[in-house]
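2024-03-11 09:14:02 INFO worker-7 job=invfold-0412 stage=load source=structure_tokens
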């Protein structure tokens, strides 16, 4: 049974993503702007999709790690500790810019804040579950690569 905090965080996440798509207004930009923002959005979807496939049986919608799960640190997880969130953020922000939609941009900022809070909580649980998580955390960026 998931913890109440897990359910609340995931519920807020899905609510914000739903709200994001409620106000769809297509905005005409020049071809190059369409191209850039569209393909950045596609990149975001691809990153999330690859991360979902890599997690496989370790996947859970909740921050609390599944029992007997394995820490994945290769593939897209070598670049980002939370590549699913990274892909969602890239998609949401690029779609906001593509449409020139301030409303979607504000919802994107709200989900960024939620993901930051949610990952802090999730990482505290991961540190208690996996001995080498702190080392992984020191070498890998939260959403984007460390330089």
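2024-03-11 09:14:09 INFO worker-7 stage=emit residues=147
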């Amino acid at each position: 049974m998931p913890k109440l905090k897990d359910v609340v965080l995931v519920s807020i996440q899905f609510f914000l993503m739903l709200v994001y798509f409620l106000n769809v207004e297509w905005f005409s930009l020049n071809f190059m702007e369409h191209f850039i923002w569209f393909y950045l959005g596609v990149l975001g979807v691809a990153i999330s999709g690859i991360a979902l496939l890599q997690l496989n049986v370790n996947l859970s919608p909740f921050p609390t790690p599944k029992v007997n799960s394995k820490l994945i640190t290769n593939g897209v997880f070598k670049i980002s500790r939370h590549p699913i969130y990274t892909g969602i953020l890239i998609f949401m922000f690029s779609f906001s810019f593509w449409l020139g939609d301030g409303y979607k941009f504000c919802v994107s900022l709200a989900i960024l804040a939620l993901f930051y809070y949610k990952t802090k909580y999730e990482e505290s649980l991961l540190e208690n579950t996996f001995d080498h998580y702190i080392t992984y955390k020191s070498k890998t960026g939260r959403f984007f690569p460390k330089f």
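2024-03-11 09:14:09 INFO worker-7 stage=report msg="The domain at 4-139 is CATH 1.20.120.1630 (Four Helix Bundle (Hemerythrin (Met), subunit A))."
2024-03-11 09:14:10 INFO worker-7 job finished
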